[in-house]
Amino acid sequence: MSPLVRRSWSPRGVTPILYQRTRRREKVSSIAALCVAPTRDRIYLYFRLHPDANIDSETVIEFLRNLRRQLKAPAVLLWDHLHPHFSRQTAAFLQSVRHLYPFFFPGYAPELNPVENVWGYLKCHRLSNWAPDDLQALTTTARSHSRSIQRKQSLLRSFVKHCPLPLRLR
Q1: DSSP code of residue 105
Q2: Domains of the chain: which residue ranges?
């Protein structure tokens, strides 16, 4: 839980000090979807945070169930090559449901994934230079900043526009 140090300020001649706890292996895993409305006028961010856990097939399937309930319309899933995305369990789930169509990005292409831009923004702007005291503080802060991103259409639009995918937005 060490901070991502970007830039810090202090009085001239005084070295800035960032205090942190060391030797802690706790983390917050996240799963998210950026959804562009069929009319291309709105973008929605859906996310889940999983404190001190890894994303596995069950987590992906549960997220997709919740996403399907929210969307109530056909959806194209653009996925990276995270193992749970193409596991047998996830493939069986996708075969059993209608209106979810997965397509995979090339082998290693984070620049094509607009969700990577969301997490990059969160890490490099909102959470930089901050060393949480415990896992609960990290989870709470990441959730509150992610929710604030959800409400900013111009910011969500910039994440999609930054990708070289041919998605036309209004």
Answers
A1: P
A2: 28-162
DSSP state of 164: -
Can you give the pTM of this predicted structure?
0.83
d(CA 108, CA 150): 26
- Check residue 12 and give its pLDDT: 87
3-state secondary structure of 32: strand
Does CATH place domain 28-162 in 3.30.420.10? yes
Q: List the structure tokens of 14.
A: 């005084």
For 136: left if phi > 0, alpha if psi spans -120 to 50, otherwise beta; the answer is alpha
Tokens of 28: 């917050």
Q: What is the pLDDT of residues 43-94, one digit of tens each?
A: 999 999 999 999 999 999 999 999 999 988 888 898 888 899 989 999 999 9
Say which range, 16-20, 62-66, 136-140, has the weakest mean pLDDT: 16-20
**Residue 32 amino acid letter:** A
- Backbone dihedral angles phi then psi of residue 104, each to the nearest 5 degrees: -105, 140
Alpha helices (runs of H) in the chain, residue ranges in sequence order? 57-71, 88-96, 114-121, 135-150, 153-162
